[in-house]
Amino acid sequence: MALAALWAARDRKPQPEKITIGVAVQPVSAPVYIAYEKGFFKKEGLQVTMRNYWAGKDALQAVMEEKAQFCTVAETPIMFAGLKHEPIAVVATIADSRRYMKMIARKDRGIAGPGELRGKRIAVSLGTNAQYYLDVYLMFFGVPRSSVRVVPLAPEKIADALAQGGIDAAVSWEPHLERQQNMLGVNGLVLENEIIYELYWNIAARQDYAATHADAVKKLLRALLRAQQYMEQHPQDAHDITARYVGVSQFDLADFNFDVRLPQSLILSLEEQARWAVRSGLAGADEVPNFLRLVYTSGLESVAPDAVNLPVKR
Questions:
Q1: Rg of the Cα trace of the chain?
Q2: Rounded to 5 degrees, what are φ and ψ at 123?
Q3: Which of 120, 138, 162, 287 is most buried, judged by most C-beta within 10 A?
Q4: 70-80 burial code (b ≥16 CB/10 A, e <16)
């Protein structure tokens, strides 16, 4: 009897670990979609549920509220969380891009370029990288911040506001941008600038979760590394899979550098944006925190040590 129980236990397959990932529905979340669709999470022993959010800040909030264990999120919501001393743990950056954020405007409002934004109503999703981008964009082109009217709007509501004429322009990103262009048609103008801003797209968790679920972090990272390799080898299939999940198809995954890593440039970006937040009175603090304390390096150091390029934590 005891021997039979022993053999039964030996033959029993280990149960997959259940996790929920809060996914911001954007092409830059492609590695998560690929890992899910191609079974890489399952192969690493994870049973994944994906919960969709229109913005990374909302996915991050789900993690903070323990509705998800991981999320995809840009650096700006992480920066704001750091200023509030929230227990965030960045486990990896999975992509970066200088072509992520754009300005879309209505031509019939007399907008032909950045200079014509003076006096216009510009929609922006507060608490996201769009808010930072708008300030940097206006400063770069010499448009006083006081000369525009900023209209706070959730990203999924901007298309209708543009089409109905409630706003004149907006800071946007995919998949919202494609929908906005489709609704405006020839009246839409997209303004790009690859100099002023670089996106860092990350996987984040709660610090307490990462510390107590080290194996889950490693499994997740290994699955994402598999997805990265698959995307390099099968770019068209990666695009088609991503298009099904985000609901648009005119994006170009080549606009993103998909690379699972922890770069020092992420810390520099967080620090620069924190200085902007402090100067702008958005921080609720008067100094820049040590963002290295928000980075969980043990997972990536275990599965891909060469992908970690950070100074020693202070």
A1: 21
A2: -85, 145
A3: 162
A4: bbbbbbbbbbb
pTM of the model: 0.93
- Most distant pair of Cα atoms in the chain: their distance: 84
The pLDDT tens digits of the residues spanning 245-272 come to: 999 999 999 999 999 999 999 999 999 9
- Domains of the chain, earliest start first: 15-97+199-309 (3.40.190.10), 102-191 (3.40.190.10)
d(CA 265, CA 268) in angstroms, rounded, equals: 5
CA dihedral 73, 75, 81, 84 (to 10 degrees): -170
**What is the secondary structure of 248-289 as a DSSP string?**
-----GGGSEEEEEEEHHHHHHHHHHHHHHHHTT-SSSSS--
Q: φ, ψ for residue 143 (rounded to 5)?
A: -100, 115
Q: How far is Cα 145 from Cα 149, in angstroms, rounded to an integer?
A: 8
Rounded Cα distance between 241 and 250, Å, is 13
